[in-house]
Inverse folding.
């Protein structure tokens, strides 16, 4: 009898426990997971990535921490790209940034200028440290804001390196600018600005590069111990004829080491240097004609 009572008590307890779990429902740990819902938490969501900005690309940062931006115009699907580059010598030649900004305004406001098979990229300020040193900004400015007097310090980046002596064609740490010795950096592409151009070019393989300098009033081809590319000669002549600047096969007024356009030639990319006539005037009317001639020429290559 005693054993029977114990059995009845156990059965009653088991029945009560079963009723409790039946009323409560399945344990939280066993609850079915709804698709898109986190276990024990709110519904899981995936934040879509913001679409890439196809009008501009940050290609790097200067030695002083300033952004270097490339601006894009024309059809994004175009197979051929032309790069126009200003401000490599910063505040020493601030008008080279001005002509690039003028070009951006022109491309933004005009239609039918860029061929359907060409994309245009403008890098208005490759040396923002040097430009800021003299003008106090890296954004659009007026020619009247360019100070008079010696602006030599604005030629160099935040590491006091002449960027146009930091590329891998005859690079030398002890470089020359006119009759002065300047730093070419600790090695070719030691400077972040030069690396930014190198990486962009290696990624995009542009059909042509036009770089603005001052002040000699001419258009110069490029090479690095090899024959001048036919396309480089054609670009030199097209730009010079349209703009009224004189045409030159190469820049040979004095020896230059680590030159950017000569490195581009070494990489098989047609590149010309357009040297404005002064350090302050963008000479936009002349350069507008030169730009149009280059775009027409590139657009006609290969049909």
């Amino acid at each position: 009898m005693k054993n029977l009572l114990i059995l009845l008590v156990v059965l009653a307890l088991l029945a009560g426990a079963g009723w409790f779990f039946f009323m409560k429902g399945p344990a939280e740990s066993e609850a079915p997971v709804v698709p898109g819902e986190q276990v024990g938490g709110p519904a899981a969501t995936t934040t879509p990535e913001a679409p890439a900005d196809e009008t501009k690309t940050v290609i790097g940062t200067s030695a002083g921490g300033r952004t270097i931006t490339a601006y894009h115009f024309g059809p994004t699907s175009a197979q051929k790209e032309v790069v126009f580059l200003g401000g490599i010598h910063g505040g020493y030649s601030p008008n080279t940034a001005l002509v690039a900004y003028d070009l951006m305004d022109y491309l933004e406001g005009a239609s039918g200028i860029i061929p359907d098979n060409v994309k245009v990229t403008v890098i208005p300020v490759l040396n923002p440290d040097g430009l800021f040193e003299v003008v106090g900004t890296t954004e659009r400015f007026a020619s009247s804001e360019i100070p008079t007097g010696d602006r030599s310090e604005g030629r160099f980046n935040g590491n006091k390196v002449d960027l146009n002596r930091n590329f891998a064609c005859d690079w030398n740490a002890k470089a020359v600018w006119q009759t002065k010795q300047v730093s070419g950096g600790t090695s070719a592409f030691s400077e972040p600005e030069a690396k930014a151009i190198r990486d962009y070019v290696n990624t995009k393989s542009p059909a042509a590069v036009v770089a603005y300098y001052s002040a000699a009033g001419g258009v110069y081809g490029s090479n690095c111990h090899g024959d001048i590319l036919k396309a480089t000669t054609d670009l030199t002549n097209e730009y010079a004829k349209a703009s009224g600047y004189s045409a030159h096969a190469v820049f040979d007024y004095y020896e230059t080491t680590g030159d950017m356009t000569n490195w581009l030639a070494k990489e098989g990319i047609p590149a010309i240097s357009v040297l404005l006539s002064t350090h302050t005037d963008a000479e936009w009317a002349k350069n507008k004609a030169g730009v149009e001639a280059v775009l027409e020429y590139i657009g006609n290559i290969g049909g």
Summary: The mean pLDDT is 87. The longest strand covers residues 67-73. DSSP finds seven helices and ten strands in the chain. The chain has one domain: 56-300.
